[in-house]
Amino acid sequence: MKLVLLSGGSGKRLWPLSNDSRSKQFLKVLTSPEGQAESMVQRVWRQIEGAGFQRDSYIATSKAQVEMMQSQLGYNVPLIVEPERRDTFPAIALAATYLYSIQGVSLQETVTILPVDPYVEAPFFQAIHQLDEVLGQSGAELALIGVKPTYPSEKYGYIIPKRGNGTNDQALFQTVDRFQEKPSKEVAAAMIEQSALWNCGVFAFKLDYLINKLIELGMPIQYDEMLKQYGKLPKISFDYEVVEKAGNIAVLPYDGEWRDLGTWNTLTDEMDRQLLGKGIISEDSENTHLINELDIPVTILGLSNIVVATSPDGILVSDKSASPRVKDMLGGFDNRPMFEERRWGHYRVIDYVRYEHGNEVLTKRICIKDGCNLSYQYHEKRDEVWTVVSGEGEFIQDEEICRIKAGDVVKIPCGSRHSLKALTQMEIIEVQTGSELIEEDIIRLSFEWTEIVAKCN
After folding, report:
1. Start and end of every Mannose-6-phosphate isomerase type II C-terminal domain (predicted)?
2. Same domain (yes/no): 238, 323
């Protein structure tokens, strides 16, 4: 069996900590067994390793998430990178062509798709192991995992099995009758009486099922060609394009812990600390959480059942029950991300000004981890001035190499090729000036430091 974990959207229901570059699965608000801060993606990858799946697992993600994924999971994590975001059907189609034409996976191999951020325990992965058996016994085109509901939720989709078909407790699977997306509480309660299950977004198929589906749709089955045509694929979910059109679907009921930590009220339920970052929560503030990423303290006095989240992107103060509405309330509020984690460290935007004549000035605080380096790059629309605040490193500019340390100032004009390796952890204040200050204005020439140094020689 091959596992493909989908890591796509921005998770704006966890604004202001999540944004287009740092999705919810990268927020280090959980705690590992060793007591260290841990993100959702780190947690699930650790669990996959414990379940014996890691050698056969891949993560399908967008270009914007690659560096953060490598920063949290390491450089050896196998990634299938979408050229652009186009919903779950194109992402899964791309993964299928990669497995088929690049990895040479057998057409009879079972492929299981699951979200990158489920909050589950070890028995859930034992259920995933059973999906191959479900496909074999049922002869179904797709095999799903359905979670036995603990209450009539309005937040989840439901899988309704056919009546009288494998509904006894001894049956391994049931045959799916239909799906219901986010019903009212009353409708959900009625469906649960009919043995309805929560749809947790996990499904399996034989690789030839999806490859043949792509052929039927006139889409490429070779990975390289799929990459070229990716921008032409329809923006549609796998549920709408494939699952709801399948004629024979089996579901494996799972009676165990499963949660979607996609909103502040569900996420804080699983946090073992009420306070992360600088701040104070008074003793009479019950069931209140503060997650503060700013360098200034936040104090909460006498307020219960609320969540306060602060970051360079904004500040959220919400009753926990109302917190799922944050995505809708943001509307067209779409500023650039103010914090990003990269393979070499992280940066935070500390000031941004756009002047009337069109010139922009942006100031960043950049932290480069010991032994890591920036890519060899240049910019077409901006000049940069670096002030080294702490640490020491090797700096390359236009194939000339030198040492820089705390107190040094470096000027990088537009078009100048440059890179930096931190010999000790470095902190730099970077001031950009130009006509358009965007992350896309980075033309990367090389990534590996030995290759960059070779260019100098």
Report:
1. 342-445
2. no
Is there a single domain that holds both residue 277 and residue 223?
no
- pTM of the full predicted structure? 0.81
One domain, residues 42 and 166: yes
pLDDT in tens, 71-111: 899 888 999 999 988 889 999 999 999 999 999 999 999 99
- On the question of a cis peptide bond just before residue 16, with omega within 30 degrees of 0, the verdict is yes
* Mean of the per-residue pLDDT values of the chain: 91
pLDDT tier, 334 (very low <50, low <70, confident <90, very high otherwise):
low
CATH of the domain at 252: 3.90.550.10
What is the tens place of the pLDDT at every residue in 281-294?
999 999 999 999 99
Q: Are residues 421 and 292 in the same domain?
A: no
Last residue of a domain, one of 226, 260, 294: 260
The whole domain housing 379 covers 344-456
Last residue of a domain, one of 232, 260, 288: 260
> Tens of pLDDT along 183-199?
898 999 999 988 999 99
- From the centroid of its chain, how far is CA 137? 34
